[in-house]
Amino acid sequence: MSSMGEDEEVSSFFESSPPLKKMEDILQKLNGFIEHNSSGGGRRIVCVTSGGTTVPLEQRCVRYIDNFSSGNRGAASTENFVKAGYAVVFLYRSGTCQPYCRSLPDDPFLDCFQFLDNTNIQVHSSHVEAVKMAVMDQQAAVAEARLLKLPFTTIYEYLQMLRLIATALKDVGPCSMFYLAAAVSDFYVPWNSMTEHKIESGSGPLDIRLAQVPKMLSILRTTWAPKAFCISFKLETDAKILIDKATKALGKYKVHAVVANELSTRKEEVVVVSSSGNVVVRRDSDKPESIVEDNLIRLIVDRHSTYIKESHS
Amino acid sequence: MSSMGEDEEVSSFFESSPPLKKMEDILQKLNGFIEHNSSGGGRRIVCVTSGGTTVPLEQRCVRYIDNFSSGNRGAASTENFVKAGYAVVFLYRSGTCQPYCRSLPDDPFLDCFQFLDNTNIQVHSSHVEAVKMAVMDQQAAVAEARLLKLPFTTIYEYLQMLRLIATALKDVGPCSMFYLAAAVSDFYVPWNSMTEHKIESGSGPLDIRLAQVPKMLSILRTTWAPKAFCISFKLETDAKILIDKATKALGKYKVHAVVANELSTRKEEVVVVSSSGNVVVRRDSDKPESIVEDNLIRLIVDRHSTYIKESHS
């Protein structure tokens, strides 16, 4: 692999990927959504990616490597983008946190409801507000074509769908944004070198060799959607190396900002690293319901406004 | 590791595991549940395990290896055991399929409900039966103390909780059952040899060495709960080796039956492998709502009845 150029690595990744299911269906939904929002109202469109990707270890997949991500950041950011007037393509890992559902209990069908009669469910008073928000706000956003939800599971699905979305958003130009909060695997087992059947256990330790996933961010910036405003994320568990890594990513991928998170404090504060300096964004600790995404999206939307103005001048 | 005995490997696994959180709380619930069902009514108690286990690759876990399992088998079996009069300890992977919720859509809050006013939700007519079943049957089973749900995520949590449950059920003797449908990882990274921080990417391929998880099934049978009726599962993607592997597991772990599944046909049929021969169990293909678990649990319950009779004679 080391002798291949970056473009070649990317082509080779896509060529060896199992093809996306229901691609026609996804494209149709996507194009309708973009058409409705950009041509009609000239609305800004953001693609929010959310949750972790899986890396299958077997073609008939029983085992896989996964990246931890609840999807809370992506879901909360999506709500804030909708509130700020954006249309959101929410590209999310199946089963992760959904917009407007963050404050529901883990087991909502057991904990939220009681039955009155055959068709009417009474919501327990302690959960009325959370359930109301989950059902009403989400349905409203989808009904107004302000929210398009597209699920993925594997790294293969994620990257193919990201390419589809980026290509479809190309003509929206500076009014489009990529907000790449998903935790994308850095390593994978190339499909062609993967074992077909379940790996056998029973004879000592197992050695796995994982190849690096080619970095798609450069291609997104240079080829797929070069005029889109682009925000990437960097998560580390070691605070000492976080800002340095985020700064390197900013230079390498030429994104407009990198949101730096440390695993243990990520719900309290993040650092927005950009060419105009580093800004610490905190949640309003005097308001219990405040989340860091309220202030983060405000800052990102301001930056996007400036970017759009500068692009048109 | 190869010079260690089986018991030593098991002790070493538990000693190096991160301790279970809320253990006191789990034990209290568990003992109350067992007391209520065994002493009071002399009810049979089954521990159904369900879903896959994760294997962290880092102590401050960002990446992990996971086993595919929707939890559908465990959830459907739990419903059938409750129907057959059993009390069920449902030891399930967080986020997997729940009993009575199998026929809900993926995104129930978006697809099932519409609002009438601030507290009343109208269920769309297409989902009335599914939602009614999800809410009513589940709440009834929990309210009657017939269903105790205990979630896990990692292999460390799963095995520690299984040990707790088995030890707590020891006195229930032949009236207790283990129905081990969870997809437990065969390999893991020992906690002590694990990197603390996120594995760095950026410099070529990644090599991972995984150790074998010690087989707990023998210890469950010989030490934790030797009188319990015990059913284990074997999943393969290659039909050619499935029955052979299931037969070997039957002999090695001295369980009362092994349910053999092939990944692609597991919703249509399974083979129950036991010392009295192999029985193919199919769903009733002339009834669209029939599932293989309806017939499987009927067979298992019959076998358990015979086992209890023989134990008392």
UniProtKB/TrEMBL annotation, chains A, B:
<comment type="similarity">
    <text>Belongs to the PPC synthetase family.</text>
</comment>
<dbReference type="GO" id="GO:0005737">
    <property type="term" value="C:cytoplasm"/>
</dbReference>
<dbReference type="InterPro" id="IPR035929">
    <property type="entry name" value="CoaB-like_sf"/>
</dbReference>
<dbReference type="GO" id="GO:0004632">
    <property type="term" value="F:phosphopantothenate--cysteine ligase activity"/>
</dbReference>
<dbReference type="Pfam" id="PF04127">
    <property type="entry name" value="DFP"/>
</dbReference>
<dbReference type="InterPro" id="IPR007085">
    <property type="entry name" value="DNA/pantothenate-metab_flavo_C"/>
</dbReference>
<protein>
    <recommendedName>
        <fullName>DNA/pantothenate metabolism flavoprotein C-terminal domain-containing protein</fullName>
    </recommendedName>
</protein>
<feature type="domain" description="DNA/pantothenate metabolism flavoprotein C-terminal">
    <location>
        <begin position="45"/>
        <end position="91"/>
    </location>
</feature>
<keyword id="KW-0173">Coenzyme A biosynthesis</keyword>
<dbReference type="GO" id="GO:0005634">
    <property type="term" value="C:nucleus"/>
</dbReference>
<feature type="domain" description="DNA/pantothenate metabolism flavoprotein C-terminal">
    <location>
        <begin position="166"/>
        <end position="280"/>
    </location>
</feature>
<comment type="pathway">
    <text>Cofactor biosynthesis; coenzyme A biosynthesis; CoA from (R)-pantothenate: step 2/5.</text>
</comment>
<dbReference type="GO" id="GO:0015937">
    <property type="term" value="P:coenzyme A biosynthetic process"/>
</dbReference>
